[in-house]
Every structure is written in structure tokens, then in C-alpha cells.
Amino acid sequence: ADATWAADDMDAGRAAMNQSIAAARQALAEAEAGDEAAQAHAAERLSLATWGLMQICTEQLDLRPAVEAVDVALALLDDADELALARLRLAAANLDYFETNDAARARPAVEAALSTAQAADDEVLTAAALDMLLVVRAEHDDPPSEADWEALEAAGRRIGDWSMVLGAITNSQFTWFDRDPARCLPVADRVAT
């Protein structure tokens, strides 16, 4: 489903994510009580598919289906493992921030998700949470340092998210553009590598 929406057709990807969510919900319902491995696997699948739907709906500027899916998933997984919950809470914070621009509500959830992802060595969720945290900070009078953007660039490179890499490089240069434009020129070398 991820490959479909990212490389082909967002509507088809959205339909595939909804199918993945439905299958994960069914697997969660069918997991026998006491079968913690099956329950954990279904919870992880549900949180990943819900995260994917959030990304698609955000790109399509149609947040309501993702908000509903995140709310249902959080209710179903209230005692799931912390990583699955962190992914869903980050999705909820992302959607809420996108809709309200309320950093005071979003930032604690984003920081908690980042901490959980780092503790679990989940590079993808760490990168996503760091990306959102730096955006929230940049937009609300707490500008990230060049080192912060470089950390995001490195995280994006580790997971192969080139959009994140380019965004981090670009944003790091906005830190200097007004104060020292000449400092921004060597950045083209980093973009090319």
C-alpha cells in the first residue's frame, strides 16, 4: 500500500491502506485472548496502516478519514505496545497540528513519540517524529539549530527518505539565509551527494 500511494495513485493507495486497516482490525479481533504475539502483530499492522492513511489524507488535504481511523485505532489499542501507540499518537498530533497549528497541544505528543521511538531504536518513527518536532519548533519561535537539521538529514538518509533529506538541507539554510547568505552556497554539494 505504501508503494502504491507514494509512486502511483494516491486514491488507490488510500483504498489499499483502508483495506490494510480493515484486515488489521479483523486480525486484532480474531487474535485469541492470551496470544500476545498475534495481538502485538495485529496492533503493529494497525498502527502502520493507520499511519499510512494519515500521510495520504494529509497530502490530499482530507483529514477527516484519518482522524477517524486514528481515533478508532487508539481506542482499540489502548493497551498495545508503546511503539504502536507512539506511532498513533504522533499521527493524531500531526493531524491536529495540520488542522489547528496549535504547537502547545502537538509538541508534548511529538516529543513523547520521539522519546519512545528512540528508546525502541525505530529509525523510521524517530525520523518522522524528529521531522515534525523541528517543523513545529520552526513555526513557533523556537528555531532549530543547524545541528538539529543535520540530525534530521542524517535520519532521512538512514531510512532512504530523500524528501526528508532535501527538506532538512533546505530548512537548515533558511537558518542562515537572512544573516549570512554566502554560507548557504556550499549546500549544493550536500544535496548532490
Q: Ends: how far apart?
A: 29 Å
Helices and strands, in order, run as HHHHHHHHHH
Structural class: mainly alpha
Oligomer: single chain
Please count the beta strands (DSSP E, at least 2 residues each).
0
Count of runs of 4 or more consecutive helical residues = 10
| Overall helicity | over 70%
The rounded Rg comes to 18 Å
- Characterize the biggest β-sheet: none
Stretches where pLDDT is under 50 for at least 5 consecutive residues are none
Mean pLDDT: 85
Coarse morphology = elongated
Strand content: under 5%
Topology:
Elements: H1 2-7, H2 10-30, H3 36-59, H4 64-76, H5 82-100, H6 103-119, H7 123-139, H8 146-159, H9 162-177, H10 187-192
Helix pairs in contact: 2-3, 3-4, 3-5, 4-5, 5-6, 5-7, 6-7, 7-8, 8-9
What does the model show?
About 80% of the residues lie in helices and about 0% in strands. With about 190 residues, it is mainly α. The longest helix is centred in the N-terminal third of the chain and has 24 residues, at about 35-60. It is elongated and about 60 Å long. The model has no long low-confidence stretch (mean pLDDT about 85).
At a glance:
The protein has 193 residues and is mostly helical. The protein is built from ten helices and no strands. Helix 2 runs antiparallel to helix 3 and helix 8 runs antiparallel to helix 9.
Features:
mainly alpha
